[in-house]
Amino acid sequence: MQERRKFIRIPESSAISYQIISDKKVGDYLTRDLCQGGIRFYVHEFVPRNTLLKIRLNLEKRFFSFETIVKVAWIREITPNERFEIGVEFVNLPQDISDRLISYIKDSLNIV
Q1: Model-level pTM?
Q2: What residue spans define the domains of the chain?
Q3: What is the pLDDT of residues 49-97, one digit of tens each?
Q4: Buried-state track 66-94, b at ≥16 Cβ within 10 A, e below 16
Q5: Are the C-beta atoms of 108 and 86 separated by less than 8 Å?
């Protein structure tokens, strides 16, 4: 089976908060992993695919945090009606943040 991912993913347990743009619901969770293209984390509510979220990600190891818009790429139910795993992709991530994120990922993998 061929790998479909565009970007290298690293395990990451960092604080993330999100707000569903269309109805102002918010939540605070921990990430599972991240890459240059997006983030995987858990939520306690179903969020439909293609929903836009405003997130705040806090990468404590680098004292680096940022806010941006993401789009729900997929969602999977973990515990019936209680816990969901969600994958989001960045929407128009500013270049300076993208560069810092790439540097963070490379440092985590010890890539020079």
Answers
A1: 0.85
A2: 10-109
A3: 999 999 999 987 778 899 999 999 999 999 888 899 999 999 999 999 9
A4: eebebebeebeeeeeeeebebbbebeebe
A5: no
| CATH number, domain 10-109 | 2.40.10.220
Q: What is the pLDDT of residues 4-50, one digit of tens each?
A: 557 778 888 889 999 988 877 788 888 999 999 999 999 998 999 99
Which distant-in-sequence residues (6+ apart) come within 8 Å of 3 by Cβ? none
| Token duo for residue 37 | 């293209």
| One-character DSSP codes across 6-29 | SS--EE---EEEEEETTT--EEEE
> Is residue 71 within 8 Å of 83, Cβ to Cβ?
no
Please say whether the beta carbons of 58 and 19 come within 8 A. no
